[in-house]
Design a protein that fits this description.
5-stranded mixed beta sheet; 6-stranded antiparallel beta sheet; 1523 residues; 107 strands; disordered C terminus; mainly beta
C-alpha cells in the first residue's frame, strides 16, 4: 500500500530524460482532505478548489537517478492572483493574444488553457499541503508536550523494508516507516556493519523525514549483494528489520565468480581512478602457532586527500572480517592482513580486493599452514574446522575435519572437549575416542553458551587441540530464530517466553520420529513435538527395544530431555533396535510415538573410495598442478588431501593441510629440478579413504608456453620486388628454444592496410628474411610470429610502412641483429651481423658507437678509430652500474653506411654467481675449456662457438655437458685451434664467457700438457744439506706431491747406501720430506749424493756434489758445530760481547750468557789485564754489562770476558782499537751531535759569542765552524773553545764584515750534523750594542779601586803585642787609601803606623796593642772608577806579654785560622774541594800543589791543601784564598 501511495520510490517509474527536474502525476485521488479530517482540524482552512492530481517535484542527476525533492519558487502575490484566477474574464484577458488567431490555432489554445489550469491547481495544492503539514506537525508537538507520558513507547515498524533484486549499475532504495516516542534513532547496517554515507561519498544516501527513513544505493554492483538491517532505538527499547539485496548481471559479460570491474568516470566526482597493486606477497608457508602478515602496496591515481577505497580480504572467496584471529590494517597506501595465530583453518587462497568508484583490482596468493611440532613424537596433527550443528536445549552436535598428518600411525579416534563461555575450565565429553568426525554432546545447561575443541589420538600419543569453535548457545532453535530478529544488548541471560500453558492436560504423541544419524558409537533420534499448543512444559522419555522382541526399555529413566533430539550411546554394535518417544509434563506421561524401523548399530556413512587417475602437470620451477578423478559414489565428501614424494626417497609429505573440495590443486614449495610422484585420498565424516595410485613422475620445472611476439622490425635491403627484413628476438621465449619465425605482409594503399598474406610457409630460423613477389613503388607493412614446441605465438605489432623501391646508394646498409654478451662491471662484448646490402663495394670494416642510455643524442661517440674487420667487439673501461646502448656502422670504399638499430639497454654490472671459462690440463695431458653456470633452467643448453661463430667441425674437439658444467676438450691442439672460444647458456639471463687461446697461450698449455703426459714428481725444494746440532749433516729435499706408494733410493757415488750406523734415512709421506742424516763427515765422504724417487709412472731425482773446497768447508762447519755443541754444555755465550751507546753517551759493553749457575764466575779483561772495577760489573737475566762513562782514547783496547765454572769455560772478546774504536766513537759523536741545541748569539766584553750546548762533550769530537759555508780560519780575533758542555765561537771586536751566516758542523759516520744561525740585521745590531755596553763595564771594573788581598774578619790579640796587617790594593789611576776606626779616619802616628808601599801594599801596624785599640777597622780605597772597602775587628785580650810580632793566618773568608798559640790540631791542613758539574772519568789522579795560580781543571775532582806560610823575617799575617 505504501509503495502505491509513493510511486516515486518505484524504479519502474518513468522520468523525462531531458529535464534536470521532472514532474510526475500520482494515481491516488484523495489524500490531503483525509489527513485534515483525521487530524480534527477545520476544513474551512483549506481553499475549496477542485481536487487535482498532485505532481511530485523530484531532483535527479545526469543519469536520471533521484537525489532529492525540489520546492517550486512561488511568484509574487499579483502574479499569483493574475495567473491563477479562476474567473472567466481573467482567463480571456490572459489569452487575448491567442484569440486573434482562433480560426487558425483553436486546438493550440485549448492545450494552453488546459496547461494553465493544471499548473494553477498544482501550485495551489502544493501550498495547501505544506500549510496543512505544518499545522498537523505543530498540533502533534503540542499534544505530545501536553501528555508526554501517555505516548512513550518502544520503536515499531509501521512499514518494514522489503528485499530487492536488481541488475548491475542500477540504483535501489530501501525505506521504512518507524513510530515511537521519543523519536527513534535509525541506523542502517550492511552485513552487521554500520553504513557511513560520509566515508563512502556518493555510494550511499540516507534520509529521514517525517518518520520515513530511506537508504539509497547508487550504481549497484556485485559487492552490494548483502543482508541489510535497519535498527531503530529510543529510551524504551530497540527493534530491527531486515531486507536483502541481490545484484544480478547479464550472462556472458564476465566470469560470474567475481563481479566485473567498473570502468569510466565516477558521476559523483567526475574522476577516473586507476588502481595498481604492487609489492605483493607470494605463496607463503607458515606453521601453526606462528604469526603471518600479508601485505600489498596500493597505488591509486589520482591521490585525493581523505579518499579511502574499500579494501577487502577474502579466503577461498569468503569475505574475512576482523576477529581475534585476523587483523586488518589500511595505512593509506598499504593493505595488511595479519594472521595472529596460524591454524590449519587459515590455509587457503587469499585475495586482496581494492575497490574504488571506478572499479576494483584484485591480487591472490596461496597460504599453506603446516602442523606444529607434536609434543610426542609420532602424534597426529590437530583436527580442524570445528563447528556446531543442530544446537538444541541440552545437546549440540560437534563436527570437525580430519587432519592430513597421522604421525605415521592410524588415528584411533578423537576426543571432544567443551568449555562454558566465560570460564577456562575444559571438560572432556567422551570417555572413548570416536572415529566419526561428528559427535553429539549432551548434558548441557539450557541457556548457556559453549565453545568446543577436538584432539586426535593414535598409539603414539595425543595431538595438539584444534582451534576452538565459535560460541553456541544451548537453546531451542525457535527461540534462537526469534532472538536473531533483535539487536538488544546482551545481558548475559536468555529469556525464554512461551504462551500461557494449559494446566492439567497430558500431552499427545510426538510426531515424525526418525533416526537422523547412526554410527557404531551412537544413534541420534529426532522428532517433532505434539501438535497441541499451549501445553504445560513438555519433556520427553526415550525408549528402545531390541528388534524382534516386545520389551521396551526406557533409556533416560531419571531426567527427561527437553529437546526433540536425543543421542543414545552404549548400544551393542551390530544389533538392531527400534525406538519410540513419550511426552510428559506435570499432568502425566502421554502415549508413545510410533516406533522407528529397525536400525542396526553401525556406521551408515561409508568411507569414500580412493580417487583415481592422478595426473601431474608442470607449472613453475617450484610448483606442479595435480589433477585427479573424484571418488565414485562418495557421500558427504569433505575434500581431498594431496601428498608428494621425491622419487626414490619413500618419504611422503602433505601438499595441503586443509581439504580441498576440487579435483585440481597446485602443489607449491617443491624443489626445482627434483622428480616427484603424487597421490590423493578423499575424506568425509566417516574417515579418510585409501590413497590413490601414485602418479607418473614429473620433474619440477617451469611449463612451456608459446613465445611472446618479436619486435623491432626493420628493412636491411630493398630491391624492385623484394625486401629483406630483420627483427629482434622476443623477450619471453616461453621456456623453450625458438624453433622458427613466420612473416606476414600486407599492402597499404592510401593509408588503408589490406589483408595479411603469408610470406613463408616453413619456419625460418634466422632473424632476417627476404620477402619476395612484392610490387615496386608500393607500400607494405609486416608482422612476425615466433614459434617453439609449444606452438606459434601471437604476431608482433605491424611494422612501420616501408616503400618497396630499389636502393642505389654506394655505401653499405645497416648491420643488424646486435647482441650483447659477457656483461661485466667494466666490459661487455658486442656481436652483430653484417649488412645484407653491401653497397657498391664489399664491406671492409665496422665502427662501433656507444652512449649512456639516458644521455642526449649528442653524446654518441665512437669506440674504435680504426675499423674492425670482425663482427664482434669487446668494449672495455666501462663505468660500473652505468647503462649503455650501442650501434654499429659498416664501411666500404665508398664510405660509412647507415647506423644499425640501437641495441638493448644493458647495465655494466657483474651479476651474482657469474663464472668465467677456466682452462685445465688433466693428468693425461688433455687440454680443456670448462664453464659452469649457476643459474641454469631445466631447458638451458651450453652453446660453444669459436670467434663467436658456430663451430662447424667438432673433429678437433669433444664437448661434454653434465649438470650445470660443460667442457670442450681438444683432441690434438695445434695452430688451427688459436682463437676466441665463447660459451653462451640459453634460457638464462645472458650467462656467457669467453677465453682467448693465443699463440703464446697455446705454447704454454702444450708445455703443461707435456709435463702431464710425462710426469715428474714435483719438488718444493731440491736436494740440500744443512748442519744439525752436534755436527750432524742432514741431506734433504721435499716433494710437492707424492703418494704413500712412492719409493726412494739413496745413492752415494753411484752406490746405493742403506740404513745403518753411519746413515739414518727418513721419508715422511705426509709432508713429502725425504732426508738422510750422517753423524759426521770424513774425507771418505767427499763425492756426489743423489736421491732417486718413483711414484707410479712419475719419477724424479736430485743430486748434490760435495767436492773440493765445498766439501772442506762443510767438513769444517761440521767440526765447528760439534765443538759448539760441546761448548754449550757448560756456561756459554748466547750473544757474544758487543757494545751499545746510551743517550747519555755512555758506552755499555754487554753480552748474553746461558746455562749458568750460582758459582759461575765472569771475569773482565782489558788488553790482557783483569779489570778490578767490580762495582761496574752487572749481571741481570743472563746479560753481562760493563759501563764506560766519558770514553776517551785511553779506553781503547781489547776487552775480553771469561765465563767459567766446574763444567768448563767460554770466552768472548771485543776489539775497540783502530777501526773498532773509530766506529764506536762515531756512534758517540752521533749522539752528541743530535743532542746539540740550536746556535744562539750572546755578547761578552771581548765581542760576540755564538754557542751551542751538548749533553756531553768529548775531546775527540770533530767540530768545524763555518762562516758563509766556508771553514773559519781562527786567529786572535776569531777563536773557538769549549766550556763544560758549551761549544763557542768568539768574535773579538766585531765589525760589519763579521755579519753573515755562521754554522757549526759535527762530523760522524752518518754524514754529520750542521746547525746554523744568521748574524745580521737586528740580531747583529742588538749583539753589537750589548758588546759595547759590556766592554765599557769591563774597563771600569778592571781599573776601579779594589782591595786585592783579604783582611781577617776578627783579630784577637793579647795586650802588649804588636799587630801588623797587610793587604794588596790595585786601581788605575792609583787609588787613594784611607784607614778608619769605628767609622772615623785614622792618621799615621807612632802607635798606629799606616803605610802604602809601591802603590800596591797597604799595611796597618800597631806597635803595642792595648785595650783601647779594640774596635772595628776599615780600609777604603777610591779612584774615579769606583770605591771598595775591607773591614776587620780587633779584639784585645789580657795575657802574658810576648816579645816580638805575632803573625796570623786567615782562611778564605778572612778569619784568623791559627796563630803561634794555636794547638797542633788547629795547625793541621785545611782542605777544600771544588766539584764541577761535569763528570770526571774514573781513575783521574789527584792533582798536586804544583798547579799554577789561575789554572784550574773543570773536569777535575780532587784535594787542595793549604799550608801555613810563615815569614819569620817580616812577621806578616797573610791571608791566602782557597779554591
Amino acid at each position: 500500500m505504501y509503495q502505491k501511495q509513493h510511486r516515486h520510490y518505484d524504479r519502474g517509474y518513468r522520468y523525462q530524460s531531458g529535464s534536470r527536474y521532472t514532474t510526475g502525476a500520482s494515481s491516488s485521488s484523495s489524500r490531503g482532505l483525509d489527513w485534515s479530517s483525521q487530524s480534527g482540524l477545520d476544513k474551512t482552512q483549506v481553499s475549496p478548489l477542485l481536487k487535482r492530481n498532485r505532481p511530485a517535484y523530484l531532483a535527479v542527476d545526469k543519469e536520471n537517478y533521484i537525489i532529492g525533492y525540489v520546492i517550486p519558487v512561488f511568484r509574487s502575490s499579483q502574479e499569483f492572483a493574475a495567473g491563477y484566477s479562476n474567473t472567466k474574464e481573467a482567463r480571456l484577458r490572459n489569452t487575448s493574444a491567442y484569440m486573434e488567431h482562433s480560426n487558425l490555432f483553436t486546438s493550440g489554445l485549448e492545450m494552453e488553457r488546459s496547461e494553465q489550469i493544471s499548473r494553477r491547481d498544482t501550485m495551489r495544492q502544493s501550498a495547501e499541503r505544506i500549510s496543512l503539514n505544518k499545522t498537523i506537525h505543530e498540533h502533534g508537538e503540542h499534544f505530545k508536550r501536553m501528555n508526554e507520558d501517555s505516548l512513550l513507547h518502544a520503536p515499531e515498524f509501521v512499514i518494514k523494508p522489503r528485499s530487492h533484486t536488481v541488475w548491475e549499475k542500477q540504483c535501489v532504495r530501501l525505506h521504512c516507516t518507524v513510530s515511537g516516542w521519543p523519536d527513534p534513532r535509525v541506523v542502517w547496517y550492511k552485513n552487521n556493519v554500520a553504513i557511513d554515507s560520509l566515508t563512502n561519498g556518493g555510494k550511499y544516501n540516507i534520509e529521514s523525514k517525517y518518520g520515513v527513513h530511506s537508504l539509497e544505493i547508487n550504481r549497484c554492483d556485485f559487492d552490494d549483494t548483502a543482508q541489510y538491517r535497519v535498527s531503530a532505538m529510543n529510551s524504551k527499547g530497540e527493534l530491527s528489520a531486515f531486507a536483502s539485496i541481490v545484484v544480478k548481471r547479464f550472462k556472458g559479460e564476465v566470469d560470474e565468480s567475481l563481479p566485473a570491474p567498473r570502468h569510466g568516470p565516477v558521476s559523483e566526482y567526475g574522476i577516473t581512478f586507476q588502481t595498481h597493486i604492487a609489492d605483493t606477497f607470494g605463496v607463503s608457508f607458515g606453521r601453526e602457532g606462528e604469526t603471518m602478515s600479508l601485505g600489498c602496496a596500493v597505488v591509486i591515481y589520482p591521490a585525493l586527500p581523505r579518499y579511502q577505497p574499500e579494501v577487502q580480504w577474502f579466503r577461498d572467496d569468503v569475505l574475512l572480517g576482523p576477529t581475534k584471529w585476523t587483523h586488518m590494517q589500511w595505512s593509506g597506501d598499504r593493505a595488511t592482513l595479519t594472521l595472529t595465530h596460524l591454524n590449519k583453518e587459515d590455509e587457503g587462497l587469499y585475495t586482496l580486493r581494492v575497490t574504488t568508484k571506478s572499479g576494483y583490482e584484485t591480487y591472490s596468493a596461496y597460504v599453506f599452514v603446516r602442523d606444529a611440532d607434536a609434543e610426542v613424537e609420532g602424534a597426529p596433527g590437530a583436527p580442524l574446522d570445528v563447528g556446531c550443528l543442530d544446537a538444541n536445549k541440552d545437546y549440540i552436535i560437534v563436527t570437525w575435519k580430519q587432519p592430513a598428518v597421522d604421525g605415521g600411525n592410524s588415528i584411533l579416534g578423537y576426543f571432544v572437549d567443551r568449555c562454558e563461555v566465560g570460564t577456562n575450565h575444559w571438560i572432556q565429553c567422551n570417555d572413548t575416542p570416536v572415529k566419526f568426525s561428528r559427535f553429539p554432546v549432551t548434558g548441557l545447561v539450557e541457556g548457556r553458551s559453549y565453545i568446543f575443541r577436538v584432539r586426535a589420538v593414535n598409539k603414539s600419543g595425543m595431538s595438539h587441540p584444534s582451534r576452538v569453535s565459535e560460541p553456541v548457545a544451548a537453546m531451542d532453535p525457535a527461540d534462537r530464530a526469534r532472538m536473531r530478529g533483535t539487536s538488544a544488548p546482551w545481558t548475559g541471560q536468555i529469556i525464554v517466553t512461551e504462551e500461557e500453558p494449559a494446566e492439567g492436560i497430558v500431552p499427545g504423541r510426538p510426531r515424525d520420529l526418525q533416526v537422523t544419524e547412526a554410527t557404531k558409537n551412537y544413534v541420534v533420534l529426532s522428532w517433532r513435538p505434539p501438535g497441541e499448543k499451549g501445553l504445560e512444559g513438555v519433556m520427553y522419555y526415550v525408549e528402545k527395544c531390541v528388534s524382534g522382541t516386545d520389551t521396551w526399555q526406557r533409556v533416560n529413566t531419571e531426567i527427561p530431555v527437553k529437546s526433540p533430539r536425543f543421542a543414545l550411546f552404549d548400544l551393542a554394535e551390530g544389533n538392531s533396535y527400534c525406538f519410540r518417544v513419550r511426552c510428559c509434563n506435570s499432568a502425566g506421561v502421554g502415549e508413545p510415538s510410533d516406533p522407528t524401523e529397525a536400525t542396526t548399530v553401525g556406521d551408515k556413512l561409508d568411507i569414500p573410495a580412493a580417487p583415481s587417475k592422478v595426473v601431474p602437470i608442470r607449472n613453475t620451477d617450484t610448483s606442479v598442478v595435480v589433477s585427479w578423478e573424484a571418488s565414485l559414489d562418495a557421500k558427504e565428501l569433505v575434500g581431498y588431501y594431496i601428498e608428494a614424494s621425491v622419487v626414490g626417497s619413500n618419504f611422503w609429505e602433505p601438499c595441503n593441510n586443509k581439504p580441498v573440495n576440487v579435483t585440481r590443486f597446485i602443489c607449491h614449495g617443491l624443489m626445482t629440478g627434483e622428480t616427484y610422484v603424487f597421490r590423493v585420498r578423499a575424506v568425509n565424516a566417516a574417515g579418510l579413504s585409501h590413497f590413490s595410485k601414485e602418479s607418473e613422475a614429473v620433474e619440477v620445472k617451469a611449463a612451456i608456453a608459446s613465445p611472446a611476439p618479436p619486435f623491432g622490425i626493420s628493412v636491411l635491403e630493398c630491391v624492385r620486388d623484394s625486401m629483406v627484413l630483420a627483427w629482434k628476438q622476443p623477450a619471453f621465449v616461453g621456456g623453450a628454444d625458438i624453433s622458427g619465425y613466420f612473416v606476414d605482409y600486407r599492402e597499404v594503399i592510401d593509408g588503408v592496410p589490406g589483408k595479411w598474406h603469408e610470406a613463408n610457409i616453413r619456419a625460418i630460423s634466422e632473424r632476417a628474411y627476404r620477402v619476395t613477389d612484392l610490387k615496386e613503388n608500393r607500400k607494405y607493412q609486416f608482422q612476425v610470429r615466433a614459434a617453439n614446441i609449444a606452438g606459434v605465438g601471437i604476431p608482433s605489432l605491424p611494422s612501420d610502412t616501408f616503400l618497396c623501391e630499389e636502393w642505389t646508394i654506394a655505401v653499405p646498409g645497416p648491420p643488424h641483429d646486435l647482441e650483447l654478451r659477457e656483461v661485466r662491471r667494466d666490459s661487455m662484448t658486442l656481436l652483430w651481423k653484417p649488412p645484407v646490402y653491401q653497397g657498391r663495394d664489399p664491406v671492409n670494416g665496422f665502427y662501433v658507437d656507444i652512449k649512456e642510455a639516458e644521455a642526449p643524442e649528442e653524446a654518441w661517440r665512437g669506440i674504435n678509430t680504426k675499423a674492425t674487420e670482425n663482427t664482434f667487439f669487446k668494449v672495455n673501461n666501462l663505468k660500473e652500474g652505468e647503462t649503455y646502448i650501442f650501434r654499429v656502422r659498416a664501411q666500404n670504399q665508398a664510405g660509412v653506411g647507415k647506423t644499425s638499430d640501437i641495441s638493448e639497454r644493458v647495465q655494466a654490472l657483474t651479476k651474482p654467481g657469474t663464472k668465467e671459462i677456466v682452462v685445465d690440463v688433466d693428468d693425461d695431458g688433455n687440454i680443456s675449456l670448462n664453464f659452469e653456470c649457476s643459474n641454469m633452467t631445466p631447458d638451458s643448453k651450453f652453446l660453444w662457438s669459436k670467434n663467436y661463430e658456430d663451430i662447424p667441425d667438432y673433429s678437433r674437439m669433444t664437448v661434454e655437458t653434465k649438470g650445470n658444467k660443460s667442457k670442450v676438450t681438444f683432441r690434438c691442439p695445434g695452430e688451427e685451434d688459436i682463437g676466441i672460444y665463447s660459451c653462451l647458456v640459453s634460457n638464462t639471463d645472458g650467462a656467457s664467457s669467453s677465453y682467448t687461446i693465443s699463440e703464446e697461450e697455446l705454447k704454454r698449455l702444450l708445455e703443461i700438457s707435456h709435463d702431464h703426459k710425462f710426469p715428474t714428481i714435483p719438488l718444493k725444494s731440491d736436494l740440500a744439506v744443512e748442519m744439525l746440532e752436534k755436527g750432524k749433516v742432514r741431506f734433504w729435499l721435499q716433494a710437492d706431491k707424492i703418494s704413500a706408494n712412492a719409493k726412494v733410493d739413496y745413492i752415494f757415488n753411484d752406490n746405493v747406501v742403506s740404513q745403518g750406523e753411519k746413515y739414518k734415512m727418513n721419508f715422511d709421506k705426509n709432508t713429502g720430506v725425504i732426508e738422510m742424516i750422517m753423524e759426521s763427515l770424513t774425507p771418505a765422504d767427499e763425492g756426489t749424493f743423489t736421491f732417486q724417487m718413483q711414484d707410479g709412472k712419475a719419477t724424479n731425482q736430485s743430486s748434490l756434489v760435495l767436492i773440493g773446497d765445498v766439501f772442506k768447508d762443510l767438513q769444517k762447519e761440521s767440526e765447528f758445530q760439534r765443538k759448539e755443541w760441546f761448548r754449550k754444555q757448560g756456561p756459554h755465550f748466547i750473544e757474544y760481547l758487543g757494545y751499545e751507546v746510551t743517550p747519555e753517551c755512555c758506552v755499555v759493553l754487554k753480552c748474553k750468557v746461558g746455562n749458568i749457575k750460582k758459582d759461575t764466575s765472569a771475569l773482565w779483561y782489558k788488553d790482557g789485564r783483569e779489570i778490578k772495577a767490580d762495582e761496574n760489573l752487572g749481571f741481570t737475566e743472563g746479560v753481562l754489562k760493563l759501563e764506560i762513562a766519558q770514553i776517551s782514547k785511553k779506553d781503547a783496547g781489547v776487552y775480553e770476558i771469561v765465563l767459567k765454572d766446574d763444567r768448563g769455560k767460554d770466552t768472548s772478546a771485543l776489539s775497540l782499537t783502530d777501526q773498532g774504536f773509530k766506529d764506536l766513537m762515531n756512534e758517540v759523536f752521533d749522539y752528541i751531535a743530535n743532542s746539540s741545541t740550536p746556535l744562539k748569539i750572546t755578547s761578552t766584553e771581548e765581542g760576540i759569542r755564538i754557542y751551542t750546548f751538548v749533553s756531553y762533550y768529548n775531546d775527540l769530537l770533530p767540530v768545524t765552524w763555518h762562516y758563509k759555508d766556508s771553514p773559519i780560519k781562527f786567529s786572535d780575533r776569531l777563536k773557538s773553545g769549549v766550556v763544560g758542555e758549551q761549544l763557542w765561537l768568539q768574535i773579538s771586536e766585531p765589525t760589519e764584515k763579521d755579519m753573515g751566516k755562521y754554522a757549526i758542523e759535527f762530523s760522524d759516520s752518518k754524514g754529520g750534523l750542521r746547525r746554523t744561525v744568521e748574524l745580521s740585521g737586528q740580531a747583529y745590531e742588538d749583539a753589537l750594542a750589548e758588546f759595547k755596553r759590556l766592554k765599557a763595564t769591563a774597563v771600569a771594573e778592571k781599573h776601579r779601586a779594589r782591595v786585592a788581598g783579604g783582611l781577617p774578619d776578627v783579630v784577637t790579640i793579647q795586650e802588649g803585642k804588636a799587630l801588623q796587617l797587610t793587604c794588596n790594593i790595585s786601581g788605575d789611576p792609583l787609588p787613594e787609601v784611607t784607614w778608619l776606626k769605628n767609622e772615623k779616619e785614622l792618621t799615621s802616628d807612632e802607635h798606629c803606623i799606616l803605610k802604602l808601599e809601591s802603590g800596591k801594599f797597604a799595611s796597618f801596624t800597631i806597635t803595642g796593642v792595648s785595650t783601647l785599640d779594640t774596635g772595628k777597622y776599615s780600609i777604603l780605597v777610591k779612584n774615579k772608577y769606583g770605591t771598595e772597602s775591607a773591614d776587620f775587628t780587633l779584639e784585645v785580650t789580657e795575657g802574658t806579654p810576648d816579645l816580638g810580632v805575632t803573625s796570623y793566618w786567615t782562611d778564605a773568608a778572612g778569619n784568623v785560622a791559627f796563630g803561634p798559640n794555636a794547638s797542633k790540631k788547629m795547625k793541621s791542613t785545611v782542605t777544600a774541594t771544588k766539584v764541577q758539574k761535569t763528570k770526571v772519568p774514573v781513575g783521574k789522579m789527584e792533582k798536586n800543589q804544583t798547579q799554577k795560580p789561575g789554572e784550574e781543571d773543570e773536569n777535575f775532582i780532587g784535594k787542595v791543601t793549604l799550608e801555613p806560610k810563615s815569614d819569620p823575617d817580616d812577621h806578616i799575617a797573610t791571608s791566602k784564598d782557597t779554591t
